[in-house]
């Protein structure tokens, strides 16, 4: 029956409509299993029953009408027990319930399997036969397999809204891209030109195609300059930096030379742009690192902008005209699209693609615009409908009822008050009420949060990602190219520490000119493992960092993905060598080069057992809570099937964090947190209670975390931690520290599911 199973699964999963998929499944299953009837019952939680949703064998008129209350009948029993039931004579079972409207009195034998998706029972799949018999083991397995496949189809259909009627209202789940709440009408945007619309064509006149490319490069550069200027005038330096990324790509000689090479090979300008951009989109889009994967969206946006100009050469500036404030809804939202909408007309953002690391999300956070990313839905159905964007939960509410609207309007008013509170401490020090000083640092890279020299709210950079410039080229960047980039960052933080993480590529972060193929990139050749195997790359980067720090003396260097002590020893020897060589070369120049502090990222669990031996080898530790949590719990948080298991408040994770701090205290090592837990309102309270004093986070979290710190007392937090130290239930930790926030008027920062 394997062939039949494959055919059924293939046809059902290919269907775009849930009802069609279910009808096809019951028809083919009845034929494949040679039974007299196959039916699907879907659970309706709010109505407390199972509804006959599809059948081939029962009365067709009963579909959508016949109902079985939860817990009743054999169908209800299967749902309660969440296991298969096989009966030779269903009529003799004490739970048997006859459905007269379905006309099932002729059926005797019964086989039913629960339809379960992520621990939730969605319904029951049933086959029946008129003669009395017990179904075979192979038939049981066949039905269970079909039920598991159907569960995925049903869950996906509900998420996409295939069950929605024009008058439907409810909640769609996504990712929280930017905090806040917005209410407004949906405005669905579609790009004028996409890569799929561009046909691959060649030309005999390469000179003409180069001229066309030159023209649109100037036009797009002018557009980007105008966008950056508008945000500069609004004093949003983080926003300006987003457009500097686009300008960086547009002016990158390697990127442009690749396009010109395609033109020289005979392709027209549009085809050349398409070919180069699709190659780089594929490169970035295939990475598992969410921060780097989102760079594919930047390339796509810039490529589509160039293509639009090439195709619509005679048109003037491309502008959007809106007569009222809107909720921007699109398959993929770019930073440049946001920039084209007048700020007073943009209330919220909803995107099918993208994550919290996309430039759209970063820009939305810097502008204070609520955003929800990753909404899997047919957006045409949302056009001009009333939406609530809940940027805390990642929820999108469609056509909310009046009582829900009133509650969210109250929350918006509360938000405005909290923003004023946060702003009031902008220039204040991060210090607890009982006098405990805290350092707030920045996680940065080639992104909006990397160029914040005017941001005087932070104490330095706790994590600077150096890998992006390596990935934007078709070769390794030269030492001088790296010096220029690193110098710009360090010069922006004179008198403040800048901690640069050495090259963290390999495995899941592919370089186009240095491909690595691995089955499991998370456990592969990456980070310090790769750079130590290629000292010619590592030494150049170390020298570039040292040269860039000359006269500034604010550099510290951090090693990623460290798993053993030998890696640290070899890296230290290479840093010694780089420092000696650079010092000798610059001996006659003004200003010596200070030997930097060297630290490690604690993100691999093996280091937890090596901390006493590690201490003499390094100057500081920094805890990457994201990867440490993933490795400790064996959970990929970007995998939707297991993401609910990822929990930074898991007792094992908290005990590991406490152990790291205790060992740091014992051996006199400065230790910081550079994962997302540092920017979480409850997370920072728990970490403070453990003793941590240095937190590195995204720029969007700095102000609220500073305010939370200034409203807290270290001695009170310690007592709370003692209460839950030996607790095994995560909810207790969140409840206690959440109540602490609420008592200080900060309950608005806690947005649990409503």
TrEMBL record:
It is found in: Cytoplasm. The keyword Hydrolase does not apply. Its EC number is 2.7.3.9. SMART domains: GAF. Residues 17-164 form the GAF domain. It catalyses: L-histidyl-[protein] + phosphoenolpyruvate = N(pros)-phospho-L-histidyl-[protein] + pyruvate. Its cofactor is Mg(2+). SUPFAM superfamilies: Enzyme I of the PEP:sugar phosphotransferase system HPr-binding (sub)domain (SSF47831), GAF domain-like (SSF55781), Phosphoenolpyruvate/pyruvate domain (SSF51621), Phosphohistidine domain (SSF52009). The keyword Kinase applies. Keywords: Cytoplasm, Kinase, Magnesium, Metal-binding, Phosphotransferase system, Sugar transport, Transferase, Transport. Pfam families: GAF, PEP-utilisers_N, PEP-utilizers, PEP-utilizers_C. Belongs to the PEP-utilizing enzyme family. PANTHER family: PHOSPHOENOLPYRUVATE-DEPENDENT PHOSPHOTRANSFERASE SYSTEM, PHOSPHOENOLPYRUVATE-PROTEIN PHOSPHOTRANSFERASE. This is phosphoenolpyruvate--protein phosphotransferase. It comes from Oceanisphaera marina.
């Amino acid at each position: 029956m394997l062939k039949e199973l494959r055919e059924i699964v293939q046809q059902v999963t290919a269907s775009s409509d849930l009802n069609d998929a279910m009808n096809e499944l019951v028809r083919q299953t009845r034929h494949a299993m040679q039974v007299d009837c196959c039916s699907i019952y879907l659970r309706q939680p709010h109505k407390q029953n199972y509804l006959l949703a599809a059948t081939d064998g029962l009365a067709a008129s009963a579909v959508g009408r016949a109902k079985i209350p939860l817990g009743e009948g054999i169908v209800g029993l299967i749902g309660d027990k969440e296991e298969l039931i096989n009966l030779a004579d269903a009529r003799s079972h004490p739970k048997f319930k006859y459905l007269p409207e379905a006309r099932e009195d002729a059926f005797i034998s019964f086989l039913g399997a629960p339809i379960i998706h992520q621990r939730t029972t969605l319904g029951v799949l049933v086959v029946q036969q008129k003669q009395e018999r017990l179904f075979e083991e192979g038939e049981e397995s066949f039905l269970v397999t079909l039920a598991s496949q159907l569960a995925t189809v049903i869950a996906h259909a509900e998420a996409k809204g295939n069950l929605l009627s024009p008058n439907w209202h409810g909640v769609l789940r996504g990712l929280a891209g930017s905090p806040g709440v917005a209410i407004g009408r949906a405005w669905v945007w579609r790009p004028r030109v996409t890569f799929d619309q561009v046909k691959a064509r060649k030309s005999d006149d390469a000179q003409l195609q180069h001229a066309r490319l030159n023209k649109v490069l100037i036009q797009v550069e002018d557009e980007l300059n105008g966008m950056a200027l508008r945000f500069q005038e609004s004093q949003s330096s983080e926003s300006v930096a987003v457009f500097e990324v686009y300008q960086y790509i547009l002016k990158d000689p390697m990127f442009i030379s690749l396009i010109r090479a395609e033109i020289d090979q005979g392709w027209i300008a549009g085809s050349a742009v398409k070919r180069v951009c699709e190659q780089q989109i594929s490169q970035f889009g295939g990475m598992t690192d969410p921060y780097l994967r989102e760079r594919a969206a930047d390339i796509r946006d810039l490529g589509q902008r160039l293509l639009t100009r090439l195709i619509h050469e005679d048109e003037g500036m491309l502008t959007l005209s809106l007569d009222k404030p809107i909720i921007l809804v699109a398959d993929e939202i770019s930073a440049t699209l946001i920039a084209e909408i007048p700020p007073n007309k943009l209330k919220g953002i909803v995107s099918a693609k993208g994550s919290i690391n996309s430039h759209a999300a970063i820009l939305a956070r810097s502008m204070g615009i609520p955003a929800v990313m990753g909404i899997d839905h047919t957006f045409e159905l949302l056009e001009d409908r009333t939406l609530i964007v809940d940027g805390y939960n990642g929820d999108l509410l469609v056509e909310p009822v009046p009582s829900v609207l009133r509650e969210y309007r109250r929350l918006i008013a509360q938000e405005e008050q909290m923003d004023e509170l946060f702003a009031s401490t902008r220039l204040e020090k991060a210090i607890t009420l009982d006098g405990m000083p805290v350092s707030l640092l920045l996680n940065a890279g080639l992104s909006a949060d990397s160029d914040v020299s005017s941001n005087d709210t932070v104490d330095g950079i706790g994590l600077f990602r150096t890998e992006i410039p390596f990935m934007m080229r078709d070769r390794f960047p030269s030492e001088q190219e790296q010096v220029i980039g690193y110098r710009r960052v360090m010069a922006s933080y004179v008198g403040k520490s800048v901690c640069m993480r050495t090259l963290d590529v390999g495995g899941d972060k592919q370089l186009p000119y240095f491909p690595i193929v691995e089955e499991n990139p998370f456990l592969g050749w990456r980070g310090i493992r790769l750079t130590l195997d290629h000292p010619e790359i590592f030494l150049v980067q170390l020298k570039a960092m040292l040269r860039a720090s000359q006269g500034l003396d604010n550099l510290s260097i951090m090693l990623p993905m460290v798993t053993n002590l030998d890696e640290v020893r070899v890296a230290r020897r290479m840093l010694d060598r780089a420092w000696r060589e650079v010092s000798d070369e610059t001996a006659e120049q003004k200003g010596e080069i200070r030997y930097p502090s060297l630290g490690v990222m604690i993100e691999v669990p093996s280091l937890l057992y090596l901390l006493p031996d590690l201490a003499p080898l390094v100057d500081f530790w920094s805890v990457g809570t994201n990867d440490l949590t993933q490795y400790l719990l064996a959970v990929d948080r970007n995998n939707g099937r297991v993401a609910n298991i990822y929990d930074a408040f898991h007792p094992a994770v908290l005990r590991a964090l406490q152990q790291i701090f205790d060992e740091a205290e014992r051996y006199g090592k400065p230790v910081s947190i550079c994962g997302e837990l540092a920017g979480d309102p409850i997370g920072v309270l728990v970490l403070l209670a453990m003793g941590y004093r240095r937190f590195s986070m995204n720029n969007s979290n700095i102000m609220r975390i500073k305010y939370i710190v200034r409203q807290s007392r270290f001695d009170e937090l310690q007592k709370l931690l003692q209460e839950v130290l030996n607790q095994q239930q995560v909810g207790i930790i969140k409840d206690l520290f959440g109540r602490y926030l609420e008592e200080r008027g900060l309950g608005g920062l806690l947005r649990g599911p409503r």
